[in-house]
Structures are given as structure tokens and as C-alpha cells.
């Protein structure tokens, strides 16, 4: 009988894994189980240009290739549990899906603040298309917007909301926006650029409570300050969608731990045959940097991990001779990220957040620039604003080519 | 032959596509994307990789 694969999570990672299974010759059944009702779509525009215009599924949907035409999509019906012994996934509606190969692709969801008066309307997150549609409707000119969190997504939403004519205050516990990946020098400069566009910052501050009876009227900070607000966007951090794996022995302490083939690993450190992880959830060691397993929440990772899983899992299911060799190969994807804020095109490679030193290596701090990041004097990351050709030279160096 | 289309309203000239198929996509001296609109069928897999890595999802293969 022909074999079957179940993919849990109908987003970029799940889609790329399905495509790669087909590209590597797997011709058994593929079923994709998704919590959202939408077919896979691209998330980055949800905080950027699509949020500034009109948010529709069509504007962000991934084109479905011919290879995945016969995939079974079970959408709007999340997986609630899996039995790794019996190899069966159960969904919220009570359906069961048996598998020979399982791909864990359920990603993240935003963490929201736990506040005493938290039930008011006007609170938003930005992860899904439905989130973005809701937020877009609230970002009317003159709206008083508080963005909690000054990471990339928080800063992108702040920039987009300014562009739409909202009054924007960014509240964050960090000392500068985006400081963790970028370091103080560049982060302080980006704060200056945001301020010149009219964003107010309340840094090293938390949110203690909200005011308003039915709808939000304001935000109380932990230093007692009060900000009038009609919209609160929470972009503080994320939770891993691993609840459906709770009854397994997989290591789900932070995402799902994997080996270098991206097979899920148990709390005892054993790789589980036929069970793979892709995208934001996969916690793997990357020998480009060191041997510490990390999750990487960048857009190129679903594609890189999806391709690797497609190759490994199809070889495993075909009981191919080259599987052992394939599984033992090192996996060294170069983390790649970008961010659009106002007219700035920020582009980064590697893991600048791990650096102990950085240096402005090209351009001007107040203009287009290239920043190189080092750990123990070894180049570990590069970030550019504009200057694509110069950034690419450092990218090459990071890859050791 | 395959026909390649880049939606220039979407393209932000990030140049990710260049790594996947340098014979088809390149950034010119002004850091703007230039591309060859047709390619041999044998280039399909690399062009599909370029489609995958484009942050703006601006590239398509016209079927
Ligand atoms: C607003 C926004 C902007 C971003 N911008 C950038 C950017 O500019 N650059 C960059 O590099 N990265 C960016 N990212 C990150 C990038 O989008 C993610 O890395 C990528 O989406 C991860 O894909 P994934 O498939 O692993 O997970 P996800 O896209 O999170 O997909 C997981 C899917 O699984 C579903 N699911 C969850 N639980 C279950 C269950 N039990 N059963 C079935 N389905 C389930 C979820 O509903 C979801 O659809 C951004 C992310 C967001 C949200
Ligand atoms: S990767 Fe996409 S956005 Fe970047 S240059 Fe190529 S087509 Fe344009």
C-alpha cells in the first residue's frame, strides 16, 4: 500500500514541505491540517505594504503549484493530539488522519498581555490575515495607537500606522527599538528615524493596565503614566503552537527540538523516525555558528527546512539507500531577514544578535549603511540599510564562499 | 521554454533571486533588478527556487 504523510500547519513551512515531498518523488497521499480557514499565505506583508493598503487573501496567497494539486487540505480544523505509537493525528472536529510520515509545521501565535482590565475591545495582534484585516479597519487617520513591543513587527506596524495618519506611541521594555538583533548604535539611529516621522517612544516601560469600559480609552504604564489610546497592538513575543503535542515524549520545551535531519527529538534525546519539524517551531543547531539548538523566526527558514524535510522524509518513506547519508548531512541555512519601515529597506543575514562587537563598515550612520557583526572576531552577521551590493559581499563571507 | 514575469510594483530589489539563478536575475549598477524573460525548461527548478526566496513574492512562472 502506498504511504501517506500528514502535515500539521497550513502555512509557509507546511506548503514548502508538501512541495518538496513531491519534488523528491513522493507520490503517496499528503494531507495538510490547518487551524486557519485560509490556504497558505505570506505573512510579512501583513505588517507592511498590505496593511497600508487593503488586506485580502488574494494579495498575500502563495501560488499553489501543480505539484501540490492533489494535496488534501483540511482547513479550519486544528490538530488536537497525535499518537506517535499508532501514528494518527486527531483534529478538533474529531477526524483522524493516519500517517507514515508526520511534519510538524504549526508555528507560533502572539503572546498577549495579561491585564486586569483586559476585556476591552480595541486590542490587536498581527500574525494572521484575519488579525491584519481587523487591525487595518482600526488604523483610521487620527486614531491613537499604542504599539506594545519594539521588535521588527512592532516597528513595522508603527511605521505603517504613521503612514496612515495615526498618532503612534511605541511602548517597550527594551532600551532601544530592535536592539536585540541590531545592537545599540543602529537601534538608537533607527529610533531617531522613527521619531523624525512622529513616533513617540516610551522605552524601558511596561503596560500595567488598560482603561475603558467596553472599548479601550487608554493605557496605564508601569511608572503610572497614562496614554490615551483607541487601538493597542501587542507585538511583544510569541507562544509556540505545541499544545497538540503535549501527550507525546517530544522535547517541546522551546519549539520542537530536532536533529540535523530535522527529525523531532524526544526528551531522552532520541530522534523519532518519520516525524519532522519545519519553520518557526524547529529548534536545530546550525554549524555555521555553533552547536546550540535555536529556533529562527525568519522567513527563509520555512523554505530551507521544508526543502530539507521533503528530501529526507521522501527518502525515508521510500526506504532509499541514500537516506542514512542524507540524514547525516549538516544543515547550515543562512538566516535571512528584511524589514521595510518608511522608505528604509533593512536587510540582514546571519545571527547579528549573537555578536559581541559590531562595526559600521560602509555608508553613513545617518544614511544608507552596512553594519558588520562579530563574535570572537569572526563575522557572524551583516545588516544593511539599502546598499544591497555591499551587503551581499558580506553575505558571501558569512557563507564562507 | 519557460516565461518569467516579475511584478515590478512588488519587487523591492532585494536581490535574493540572484543567488538562485544568476544567469536570469541580476542587480544592475544602481541596485535595480534586471531579468531575462525566457529560459530553457532545464532552468525551471532554479527559477522556482528564485520564486520561493523572493520576499515580495514578485516572481512568477507564466504557465
Ligand atoms: C506580521 C509578520 C511580519 C513578518 N515579517 C517578516 C519579515 O519581514 N522578514 C522575515 O524574515 N520574517 C518575517 N516574519 C516571520 C515569518 O513570517 C515566519 O517566520 C513564517 O511565517 C513562519 O512560517 P511557519 O510556517 O513556520 O509558521 P506559521 O506561518 O506561524 O504557520 C503555522 C500555521 O499552523 C497553524 N496551526 C497552529 N496550530 C495548529 C494546529 N494545532 N493544527 C493545525 N494548524 C495549526 C497556524 O494557524 C498557522 O497557520 C513575519 C511574521 C509576521 C507574523
Ligand atoms: S528577490 Fe524578489 S524583490 Fe528581490 S530583486 Fe528578486 S524579484 Fe525583486
What does it look like?
The complex is a heterodimer of chains A (401) and B (63). With 401 residues, chain A is of the alpha/beta class. Helix content of chain A is 23%, strand content 30%. Chain A has helices spanning 12-23, 49-52, 57-60, 129-138, 152-163, 179-182, 184-196, 300-317, 323-328, 388-398, and strands at residues 4-8, 29-33, 72-74, 79-83, 88-91, 96-98, 101-104, 108-110, 123-124, 144-148, 167-172, 200-203, 207-211, 218-221, 226-228, 231-234, 238-240, 256-257, 263-265, 271-277, 282-285, 293-295, 336-341, 344-350, 357-363, 369-375, 378-385. Chain A has a six-stranded mixed beta sheet with strand order 3-2-1-7-20-19, with helices on one face. Chain A has a five-stranded parallel beta sheet with strand order 9-16-10-11-12, with helices on one face. In chain A, strands 23-24-27-26-25 form a five-stranded antiparallel beta sheet. Chain A is globular. Chain A starts with a strand and ends with a helix. In chain B, strand 2 and strand 3 form a beta hairpin. Chain B is globular and about 30 Å long. Chain B starts with a strand and ends with a strand. Classes of the chains: A alpha/beta (401), B alpha+beta (63). Chain A binds chain B through residues 16, 23, 42, 44, 60, 62-63, 65-66, 299-300, 303, 336, 338, 340, 345, 347, 386-389, 392, and chain B through 12-16, 27, 31, 45, 48, 51-53, 55, 57, 60, 63. Bound molecules: flavin-adenine dinucleotide and iron/sulfur cluster (SF4). Residues 6, 11-17, 25, 33, 54-56, 58-59 of chain B line the site of iron/sulfur cluster. Flavin-adenine dinucleotide binds next to helix 1 and strand 23 of chain A. Chain B: InterPro entries: 3Fe4S_ferredoxin, Fe-S_cluster_ET.
